[in-house]
Amino acid sequence: MVSEQKNINIISSLINKSHHPLSLSLATNHISIAHTSLPITISTSSNTTTLNNQTTQVSTPPDLIVQNTVAPNSVAAGSTLNINYQIKNQGSENAFSSYTLFYLSHDTSVSDDDLYLGSDEIASLNPGAYSSRTVTFSIEKNAAAGSYYLLYKADANNNVVETNENNNIVAKAIALQNSFSSINGYGLINAAAALAQAIGQTTFGDVPDLGGLNWGADLIKAPEVWAKGYTGAGITVAVVDSGVDRNHRDLNSNIWKNTKEIAGNNKDDDGNGYIDDVYGWNFVSNNNNTLDKNGHGTHVAGTIAGVNNSFGVTGIAYNAKIMPVKVLSDNGSGSDSAIANGIRYAVDNGANVINVSIGKEQPNTDIQLAVEYASSKGAIVVMAAGNAGASTPYYPASYAQAWGLAVGAVDQYGTTADFSNRAGTELLSYVTAPGVGVYSTLPGNKYVSWNGTSMATPHVAGVVALMLSANKNLTDAQIRKIITATASNSLTA
Fold first, then answer.
1. Is the pTM of this model over 0.85?
2. Which of 5, 122, 220, 346 sits a CA distance of 20 to 30 A from 325?
3. Looking at residue 55, what DSSP letter applies?
4. Active-site residue flag, 454
5. Catalytic entry in 357, 454, 469, 490
6. Other CB atoms closer than 10 Å to residue 337's CB: what's the count?
7. Contact 2/333 with Cβ under 8 angstroms?
8. Residues whose CB falls within 8 Å of the CB of residue 472, separated by 6 or more in sequence, listed in order
9. 131 touches 86 (CB < 8 A)
10. Which of 248, 296, 299, 459 is catalytic?
11. Is the peptide bond before 396 cis (omega within 30 degrees of 0)?
12. What is the DSSP code (8-state) at residue 163?
């Protein structure tokens, strides 16, 4: 690997208990029931019944209508819609229980292509009575943006025989907004806006760009966050990759160390199942050597937490700690089991963020369960979309439909890279970050500029680390929501 409605049909029956045969003829609002020995005449036009010279008033059937509707003028896909309304029986007979149904429609009538939202059960209503209602519905995440009508349809299942069956629908204009793009998902990540929202503030003010090789940090507005004092301190980011050169001068002071383990004593001091895992674990060779000979993991690590000094590269979360977890061999290949076990190791040993700049076309259950496990334990997995220029992300990035974040690549102008796998039509937490010409660390105190969604992903992992350094209580779901809501395509960005 290199993602009842209950139709209550109430049948009303009129039962004639007379033993005499009757014949029924209808003509223009006049009903005549003929019998040779018992003449009866009913005239509907006068709303009275004459029976053997006795007069009785005829009731008007029930009539249910929707009134006093209150709903927002717009709603975003994937959000909830709160609706207030009243259902009234304006007839003079009791109305049996019924259902009000709700739709999003392109016109003012109900049709098969409408988006069904849900139903609201209405209890029996006396004549003249009304019921004030509040309902909440979820809008489909993939709902197409556009202008719609919110339809309220009283007695939608025809449970009640009404005097007027044509006044049940009320239509209210509503705009449906969806900031998700099949190309770049929610767009370019915005560190300043995301972190500000994470601590309940408005977005931070701009600061001068650093320029030069730091263009990636500038593009995602990381310096604005640093200026507020948030640098990733206290946060551990696992790099599940080809290993990390922990001796690199731009990384060595930011390498995580398992302080519960005594180096070199050939014992599992902390009882986590791994002997002498002082600097992480190697799931390729099943030992504690997590050094990187390939360069990929070291490059990723520099973008996340390169030390802020007078040389080299400054990481997005330059005071965070890097946990090396080696799951790829020196030639860059690795097994599904190694990757899944690597993610679980990172979670169990305290990683707050897990960078997975790895992908393949096929899904894998073990990796999926590992990503889900991370989310359940409060760790956020950030995954590369892939470099095939495909219309959908590779796995495990496709699992960002439910957990973690998927990341595509853009250049210094914010344009989606040709090689970057797109977001696709299925809604998932996909954002973009710098992934073209990204300058970062290589083993042996070297540096290089590389392209790839692998290079974009650590930018996002770094932003997540910044957010958690400001508010460590944020969950995976909250991080996903904030980052997508504040990215460049967002309606609120």
1. no
2. 220
3. E
4. yes
5. 454
6. 15
7. yes
8. 234, 235, 352
9. yes
10. 296
11. yes
12. S
CA distance 76 to 490: 10
**Catalytic annotation, pick one of 114, 120, 155, 241:** 241
- How far is it, in rounded angstroms, from Cα 482 to Cα 443? 35
Both tokens of 218, joined, read 């500038």
3-state secondary structure of 125: strand
Segment 291-298 mean pLDDT: 98
Is residue 17's pLDDT more than 60? Answer: no
In angstroms, the CA 171 to CA 104 distance is 9
pLDDT digit string (tens) for 18-46?
A: 333 333 332 333 333 333 333 333 333 33
Helices (H), ranges, 286-405: 296-305, 336-348, 365-376
Residues 213-264: pLDDT tens digits? 999 999 999 999 999 999 999 999 999 999 999 999 999 999 999 999 999 9
Please, are residues 132 and 67 in contact by the beta-carbon 8 Å criterion? no
pLDDT tens digits, 154-172:
998 888 898 888 999 999 9
Which domains are present in the chain?
Answer: 4-58 (no CATH), 64-177 (2.60.40.10), 191-486 (3.40.50.200)
Residues 6+ apart with CB under 8 A from 223: 207, 208, 209, 210, 217
Cα atoms found within 13 Å of the Cα of residue 184, Cβ hemisphere only = 19
Is 296 labeled as catalytic in the residue annotation? yes
Phi, psi of 454 (to 5 degrees): -60, -30
